[in-house]
Write a structure and sequence with these properties.
- This protein starts with a strand and ends in a 6-residue tail after the last strand.
- Helix content is 25%, strand content 35%.
- With 72 residues, the protein is of the alpha+beta class.
- A hairpin with a 3-residue loop joins strand 1 (2-9) and strand 2 (13-14).
- The chain has one helix and five strands.
- The longest helix is centred in the middle third of the chain and has 18 residues, at 25-42.
- Strands 1, 2, 3, 4 and 5 form a five-stranded antiparallel β-sheet that branches.
Amino acid sequence: MRTYYFDLKDGVPVRDRRGLEFATPGAAIAHSKDLAQRLRNERSIQDPRLIITVLDESGTEVHREPVYPDRP
């Protein structure tokens, strides 16, 4: 299991300091998609720039998931 971090960025990054363990990068990416869906449903700020950046334990970016993909 590797630890993956899910940073939020909308111009100013919010770092994930704890991370979560997943067996594969694909499982971490799937989690970022679920997290984006939850943010779309719960978030009061509708910033179209908001993304979730998935980083592995070495700090390498493995995926970017836009929270509002249909907005310019």
